[in-house]
Write a structure and sequence with these properties.
The protein is of the alpha/beta class and about 325 residues long. The protein folds into two domains: about 150 residues, Rossmann fold (3-Layer(aba) Sandwich), CATH 3.40.50.1370; about 150 residues, Aspartate/ornithine carbamoyltransferase (Rossmann fold), CATH 3.40.50.1370. The chain is built from twelve helices and nine strands. The strands form two sheets. It has a five-stranded parallel sheet, with helices on one face. Strands 2-1-3-4 form a four-stranded parallel sheet, with helices on both faces. The radius of gyration is 19 Å and the shape is globular. About 50% of the residues are buried.
Amino acid sequence: MTLTGRSLVSILDFSNEEVLAVLDIAEQMADALGWGDEAETQPVAPLDRILATLFFEPSTRTRMSFESAMLRLGGSIISMADARSSSAAKGESLADTARIVSSYCDIIVTRHPEPGSAQTIAEAASVPVINAGDGHNEHPTQTLTDLFCLRRHKGTLEGLKVGLCGDLKYGRTVHSLAPALARFGCELTFISPPALEMPEEVTEKVQELGAEPRVTDNLAGALDDLDMLYMTRIQQERFADPAEYEKYKGIYVLDRRLMNQAPEDMIVLHPLPRVDEIAPEIDDDPRAVYFEQARGGVPVRMALIALLLGIVEETGISKRSGLAEP
């Protein structure tokens, strides 16, 4: 098994064993960052590698965590954070952009509003490409971040009971997360209004992977015995009709009343940003781990970058990585 030189467009590009390898290296990266009780931040040697971020859509956590990850690995960054300032505004194709940018860097991270755009870039580029979101299609590195947080709290990814709630139609995070969880044998509950239910192709993929998800529009009734509830916002930017968005805005709000009905060991994740689907009053509930989840994006993306560039081994951090052994 090797991830060196590969791209990550879909979460299913990686096997379960490869997903776990990324999470294991992420744990070591977290130790190197001083996350452990007794861990101290480890020095990082300068890394003669360049990461290019091609973001055609707004981003805070994903872009900044990728850039932070590369800098913490000792590498450098070139960035296109606004498509209006690039040759895309002149009509340059995605494939041509990928060919040119890949000659300037060692790895590319891309976000684009069009489904399938990441695959187009990966096929044209001469370096590994990481999909940081292609329209409503997928967001595989968010899934790795989600799994990292989930495993840290539950000790396993196998056979957990997980509820996915909110905009399942347009929410690309759940389009990656649901198949990944299904492949680890999790029991899934899809919670959404009928108009925003999980796309048929994602449901079919989940079923092919051995899961038969329960479907409901009742959040309160789905909380019974969940190990994890994954809340998502209604994707305002994906609605062609603003009136449709207003119809569903605020349809689910996880508040203290609902948390009082939830299992004592159920954790709450959210890919962020939140709008109104999680009440701030539960932020101090120990089961609300979404800010910790977001923090984990840095070691996870450090691990992924390092593995795709071949500067660490799947078995652990090596001396040539520039990171001291944890």
